[in-house]
Structure formats: structure tokens, C-alpha cells
């Protein structure tokens, strides 16, 4: 089956029984963490939100208002599981983040005190953050 690759910068939404209104980004590269990727979601900006990565309308086609990356909601998921969910219609792809947006997300990951140290270590080991 030919399909879009799920790789860093890929954005998606959970659907079906996992339905979630949030946009998620694949951030890490599964090649150095076999089979698993780090994912981060976008949420509407609130006064108590993490200011490490604020997004505005136009930063990604899905983003229509002031939003932020929820580093506290970071998770890892198996790449095989993501592909199985894609094949089952349980995730909907929303294209790729621009290089500028990925840089902004990764800069925020390095700055955020809400991203778990294990996830920071993963991104650092992959050379994505310092």
C-alpha cells in the first residue's frame, strides 16, 4: 500500500473511538528510537498555558487562532501503531509542518519546563535540541 510517510513534521488528528479535536505533530525520528516517535499536541492558548511555543493562525493550515504546544501532554507511540491506526481510519493526516514551524516547536521543547526530561533526552540524543 502506498501512503504518505509518518515522519518528523507529520501532523495528524485522532479519529474514530480515539477522536480528539487537537492537532498532533510527530517530532522525533524513529530511526534512533526504534519504532517509537515522540508526539506533541496543539491546544488553544489560555493564560496558564506554557509560553514556550505559541502558534498563531497561519503557522499551520489547521491552526486558526492563538494556540500553543502542550509539552506536558507529550507522548511516545509506536510507528507501527500509527500506521495501523491510519489504515483503520483512526487518524487523519493534516500534512507536514514547515521547517520554520518545526524549528519553533523544537526551540520550545528545549525551553519548556513542562516537557519530561526523558523526552528532552530523546530529542537531545537525536541532535534535535541542545
Task: Tell me the series of helices and strands, N- to C-terminal.
Answer: EEEEEHEHH
Q: Termini separation (Å)?
A: 37 Å
Sheet-strand content, in percent, reads 25-35%
Largest sheet: 6 strands, antiparallel
Instruction: Compute the CA-based radius of gyration.
Output: 14 Å
Percent helix: 10-25%
Provide mean pLDDT, rounded.
Answer: 91
CATH fold group:
SH3 type barrels
Shape: globular
Low-confidence stretches: none
Strand arrangement, major sheet: 4-5-3-2-1-6
Description:
It contains 3 helices and 6 strands. The chain has helices spanning 79-87, 99-111, 117-125; strands spanning 10-14, 24-26, 36-44, 54-55, 67-78, 91-96. The protein has 130 residues and is an alpha+beta fold.
